[in-house]
Amino acid sequence: MDEDLKLIKEVLKGNVDSFSILMNKYEHMVFSFAYNMINDREAAQDVTQEVFIIVYNKLYMYDKKYKFKNWLLKIARNKCIDYIRKYKRVYEANIEDITYIYDKNPGPEEAMEIREAKLIIRDFIGKLGDIDRQIITLKYSSGTTFVDIGEVMGMTEGAVKRRYYKIRDSFKKHYEREQREKEV
């Protein structure tokens, strides 16, 4: 039995400490996802808190044939969508929270290139539709697999992959176009 299932069983028996362990394990992931969806730190904190209240109150409904992480992300996704609908917010994904691999101590020239790349990425993600933005956010902010993204979003793995690779190809073209314009 995996660690999450053991903790869930303990929570259902009334052990609040086990819920704290679960919350500590997943709180950053949920917050990061919410922040990338909403692009408002305070609202993301509120949504994260609401997600864990729902999880605590509905834990008895969790179906152990699915990964707990996916169930949690699905609740987070729904709360973010509710928030966006309620406040009719126009939002962009925040690139700073998406993980990139680069030298931790870049020189001034490299630092400028990284900032420019982040702006290009932010612009691109900001223009994506809701579903595509969610796929990218799940893939890069929490390292979610295609299978798990499909489960969270109610899509097949194949549909998620097709959208992801289409987005990636579109981004490559967007990035190359931006670089050509920069050189002119």
Task: Please tell me about this protein's structure.
With 184 residues, the chain is mostly helical. The protein has 2 domains: 1-100, Rna Polymerase Sigma Factor, Chain: A (Orthogonal Bundle), CATH 1.10.1740.10; 107-183, Orthogonal Bundle (Arc Repressor Mutant, subunit A), CATH 1.10.10.10. The protein contains 8 helices and no strands. Helix 2 crosses helix 4. The longest helix is centred in the last third of the chain and has 27 residues, at 157-183. The N and C termini lie far apart (59 Å). Residues 120-168 form the RNA polymerase sigma factor 70 region 4 type domain. Belongs to the sigma-70 factor family. ECF subfamily. One of its GO terms (biological process) is DNA-templated transcription initiation. Keywords: Sigma factor, Transcription, Transcription regulation.
Query: Structural class of the secondary structure composition?
Result: mainly alpha
What top-tier CATH class of the largest domain fits best? Mainly Alpha
Number of domains: 2
Which H/E pattern describes the elements? HHHHHHHH
Q: Strand tally, please? A: 0
Write a brief structural summary.
The chain is mostly helical and 184 residues long. It has helices spanning 3-12, 16-38, 41-58, 68-87, 108-126, 130-141, 146-153, 157-183.
Give the topology:
Layout: H1 3-12, H2 16-38, H3 41-58, H4 68-87, H5 108-126, H6 130-141, H7 146-153, H8 157-183
Helix pairs in contact: 1-2, 2-3, 2-4, 2-6, 3-4, 4-7, 5-8, 7-8
